[in-house]
Amino acid sequence: MLQNPKRYTITAALPYTNGPIHIGHLAGVYVPADIYARFLRLQNKDVAFMCGSDEHGVAISMKAKKEGITPQEVIDKYDAVIRKSFVDFGISFDNYSRTSAKIHHDTAQEFFRKLYDNGDFIEEVTEQLYDAKADQFLADRFVTGTCPKCGNEEAYGDQCEKCGSTLNATDLINPKSTITGETPVMRETKHWFLPLNRYEDFLTKWILEGHKNDWKSNVYGQVKSWIDGGLEPRAVTRDLDWGIDVPVEGAEGKKLYVWFDAPIGYISATKEWALREGKAWEPYWKSEDTKLVHFIGKDNIVFHCIIFPAMLKAEGTYILPDNVPANEFLNLEGNKLSTSKNWAVWLHEYLEDFPDKQDVLRYALTSNAPETKDNDFTWKDFQARNNNELVAIFGNFINRVTVLTHKYYEGFIPTPNAFSEIDEATLTELKAYPAVIASSVERYRFREALGELMNVARLGNKYLADEEPWKMVKTDPERVKTQMYVALQITAALSVLAEPFLPFTAFKLKKMLNNAGKLSWADVAELDELLPAGNQINEAELLFAKIEDDEIQKQMDKLEATKSANSAENKKADPQKELIQFEDFAKMDLRVGTILEAEKMPKANKLLVLKVDTGIDIRTIVSGIAESFKPEDIIGKRVTVLVNLAPRALRGVESQGMILMTNNAEGKLVFVNPDVDGVRNGETIN
Known about the structure:
Helix content is 43%, strand content 17%. With 686 residues, it is α+β, with helices and mostly antiparallel strands. A hairpin with a 2-residue loop joins strand 14 (330-332) and strand 15 (335-336).
């Protein structure tokens, strides 16, 4: 663990540009990374916070095929959507690049070429899955089948999303091509492999021995499992039509594997930034006094802790990450987030429903962050954290202080008189919080750090509740000046300490206090006066607003609609029954009829008693549809009736037939009836 680094290089996993960003991405990677970067900048550290769109690989090609557009159109569309979401939620990248940029293509090819020239790759002709109908080799994501480890029948060729196992397409049981649905065949092709087995000793010493005590247990455990299982050569090229060309002779038609080129995107993004800012890029990647930290989700651990470090070690001139604080997964209302199933809270849609509430979501996601285990986001918890914590604790304190300052002193910060013991104790405790919060942030415990931030607001609320300046002002207005001065110092501290977690709130608060940009993290611990007496603050405004039940219900209804749509899409028809002869079918007398009367069967929740005009008579039919239809809603309904069913007594009423029903996509009962006007009652169906 690097002590007192001269500079920091922070990377956040490159999002695929095959769809927008959802709360899982924010909670798992981008909010933690942003908290860390903002925290460091408040301490005047030299920070390079890098990210960019991952625009190569099969996910892009799949999206292009699905939407009937080119890969370039896909990446341009979603790069714009993703960039806007990051800006909207205050993710403060120093540079957000694209892997389609020339600087990235050049950097990735140079990296590959150096390893190639050094003899670090193995060149092999291997058998790969090939779709004869589509006449192409199948990249991992174009193959689905049964996971050999957990039995999931919808595993992809590179990863099982159910158990999280990293796979090769050839590992799958009963593989199928997602392009044609055909069973692929094996065909020979030449590729280049990075022999990870050569780096087992290095990885063992660097991670398993060197980072045993400072890396998160979930990261360390997954890396140990991989190394203990024995590392094997990993292909760094693919047979694809979209990506970065392999820059060696004999590699025509082949591209760099996306997991080789994507992490190099951090380097090319730094180069791009350095060129723009007039800086040298090398110190951020090649100086031993630089601290490199990768923020990722758990599905990327193997690539950032084994493959990319092996690549950097092979190249020879780069530093290795000081830490890789990967988070686990965030679920949504008890189910795994899924882009393909639309089971997500999309950031751009969130802001349509909750405008100007970016910090509420940042707060809810951080306070429930999946730091060491999978966690669940629920809308009720989101509402409770806003109403019971942000509004009732943080917002309540700020509102009371600023409103009273304007009420008593026209917004001017009063000059304090002698401090009491409680004043001194409160201000001393306040000075301790920057170090407490910093300790949590530096250990990547952002949930814990946010809790300590809220304790600062609790400190302020307790101070006001104990001192009661609104009562004291009637008997000792001079004492109230000191009380309000102390409360305003806590308010100023919050404007600084909140910035990594709640940047929009911190900006509003600094504006209210008229001290924007004047205080650093260290000032809160070191200065005796954060807001000078005599300065005037601006008008008070509410930082947070209560979220009502109907707003939450709207979100629940949206998810319920998604669940119904998924059920309808995935619903499989019942298998065919055993064969019958035509004579069996001909025995049934099916007629068109109309319901004339309908009433509930007494003491029976499920039964309706119907009078039906069958065209040959008017008869009574008892039907078990009372839980799906009100009697008054089905009078006049055209129906299909089986008229020659043997009569049957149900609760003392003789039923003389059966109404034909089925279920719709949502599982609700619907009538099977003629859809053409002019069909008369009594017409036979044959």
